[in-house]
Write a structure and sequence with these properties.
The structure is a single chain. By secondary structure, the chain is of the alpha/beta class. The chain has one domain: Rossmann fold (3-Layer(aba) Sandwich). It has 9 helices and 10 strands. A 6-stranded mixed β-sheet has the order 6-7-8-3-9-10, sandwiched between helices. Adenosine-5'-diphosphate binds next to β1, β2 and α2.
């Protein structure tokens, strides 16, 4: 029962030129006050993602990547400015439409998987469906299909707490996509993984992005992986800058300890 707003964003609908940008921000600003101090991680960001794009957001730790993704997902509200989804400002949505946007249009993956360790992989993936009242058997069958898509069909009945870090992140990705969203937002999804698992999870995101015709925005410290995106944007001093400039800014922020310069996987912040 997609509302009119969300129906506009159906990936199978041919979009008029004016709605090519499925997600857009206008002068997006976020301030945090901590004691006397005011922090402005986002200082007037104009951003636009076209349907089907895979965009990497890079930037040093504390530059506002998570803050930005949270605003895009309507998990937090801007101090000023606006986020537009399919041409409609999130600020104009009624509470029920906003909940619908969060739950059905956006899949969110965190750096830490936030799985329930005592529940099985399938139960974790089914959780967003169960919350919406889908019958348990049906929800678990859908979850198992998604576990197959992330290469974990054989682990459906295993407790999430017993899976490896890479496997847990795959389960988290399946859970993020189980409602068949149009947007996938991933906040350093490979940040807790070693190089090999990070590459595997990135491969998976890339594959699901294409096969499910998602629009994907991911924050990452990993410049090697970021370079595989359609577009790289660097977040620095509250502003988003495109392309090579973003990489240069990000590279400057690699700590000495990373050792291998701008090519170091996971070397930022
Ligand atoms: P990143 O994800 O790039 O590491 P964040 O978006 O988490 O950066 O944080 C950006 C800045 O905003 C940091 O200085 C952080 O301390 C601050 N910040 C984030 N969330 C809050 C909050 N809820 N209250 C106060 N400050 C915050
Ligand atoms: Mg972060």
């Amino acid at each position: 029962m997609a509302s009119t707003v969300l129906a506009v964003a159906d990936r199978h609908t041919a979009a008029p030129e004016s709605e090519r940008a499925i997600l857009r921000t206008e002068s997006l600003r976020k301030e945090f006050r901590s004691g006397q101090q005011e922090i402005v991680p986002l200082d007037g960001i104009d951003f636009s993602a076209e349907r089907g794009e895979l965009i990497a957001i890079v930037g040093p730790s504390g530059s506002g990547k998570s803050t930005f993704l949270h605003l895009l997902a309507a998990l937090d509200t801007p101090t000023s400015g606006a986020v537009y989804f399919a041409g409609k400002s999130l600020l104009s949505l009624a509470e029920s439409e906003l909940a619908d946007f969060r739950n059905r249009s956006v899949g969110f993956v965190w750096q830490r998987h936030h799985l329930l360790p005592d529940f099985t992989a399938a139960e974790n993936v089914a959780m967003p469906l169960l919350v919406h009242g889908k019958p348990e058997g049906e929800a678990l069958r859908t979850a198992e299909t998604w576990l197959g898509e992330v290469g974990l069909a054989s682990r459906a009945g295993q407790r999430a707490g017993e899976l490896s870090g890479g496997e847990q992140q795959r389960v988290a990705i399946a859970r993020a996509l189980v409602n068949d969203p149009v947007l996938l937002l991933a906040d350093e999804p490979t940040g807790d993984l070693d190089e090999r698992n990070a590459a595997g999870v990135f491969d998976l995101i890339e594959r699901l992005h294409r096969s499910h015709r998602l629009t994907t925005i991911l924050a990452t410290h990993n410049l090697i992986l970021a370079r595989r995106a359609d577009r790289i944007l660097g977040l620095h001093h509250g502003k988003l800058a495109p392309g090579a400039e973003a990489l240069a800014d990000a590279a400057v922020s690699i700590p000495q300890a990373a050792g291998a310069g701008a090519n170091a996987p996971g070397g930022l912040g």
